[in-house]
Amino acid sequence: MHARFPYLRGGRNNPSLRCGDYHGLVPTLPFLEGGSRYAEIESGSPRNPYDNAFVSLSGRMQVLLCPSSNPPQNYRYPNLPYRSYHFSVGTTIINNYAGDTEGLFAYQSPGAVNPTCIGPSTHKGFKDIIDGSSNTVAVSEKGLRGDMASRMVAGQSVYSYTTASLDSNPAICLATAQNGRYISGTVADWTAGNLWSFGHPHWGAFTTRLPPNSPSCYEGSSNPSNFSGIFSTSSFHPGGALASMADGSVRFITSNIDCGNYGATPNRNYGIWGALGTINGGEAIGDF
């Protein structure tokens, strides 16, 4: 009907009608039997996507949860549901918080005060997927059982690393974990799925630099909001994670999928996983 994919983050919220903090799952609610919830969110005065008192954001939403996940208690926002599913920004790790990305989803509008919050839009359509919709990953999952004390990689991130260093050598992030747990870095005091309607990348996106069940690392502080970085997909399925392609098909992406040299400089190679993350990279996909 709309002939476009939703934004990664956009819409309008408080304070003062700041733009671009809602996740693209919100405008898809009418297609997930959540039309009445969406109408409530859109009606009346704008509210923040992390408003624990906003009834329209509250309550369990089973459609957003992978059956293999058993979310921990949402101690920061106890009224807000968890979600497992995140949108692809491809191999982009610098400015995956704001602006366009090499993936299927991007930032809709400036983070400034703008009552209309319309543009510049980055709603992409099938015509933009030059690599082909069956060769482009759209949505994948993140595990939700971890907490800070467990230092589990699934659904958690560590800081602080400069995005320039992560971009130059993503293996810096890979080295922060072993056997599914972080061995270095400070774990963020937030899990990836505890703000289902928030579009900042720690909560809303995943990157295709490191394979499934790899660490996630970002530049910033204990609160990942407003920061860019490497945000890896994860799950509790043995050996990988599920991903939906842009054509709607679902694939199992193994944790040993080819990632090239993770896009390290100077001879960047993103491998098959990186190629699946881009919409117009022109890479050869091969078997995966």
Describe it for me?
The chain is built from 5 helices and 13 strands. The mean pLDDT is 88. It has one domain. The two termini are 32 Å apart. With 288 residues, the chain is an alpha+beta fold. The longest helix is centred in the first third of the chain and has 8 residues, at 35-42.
- Shape estimate: globular
User: What gyration radius follows from the Cα positions, in whole Å?
Assistant: 17 Å
Helix content: 10-25%
- Strand order, largest beta sheet: 9-3-4-12-13
- The DSSP helix count reads 5
Order of helices and strands: EEHEEEHHEEEHEEEEEH
Write a short abstract of this structure.
With 288 residues, the chain is of the alpha+beta class. The chain is 10% helix and 16% strand. It has five helices and 13 strands.
Write out key terms for the chains shown.
288 residues, alpha+beta, five-stranded mixed sheet, two-stranded antiparallel sheet
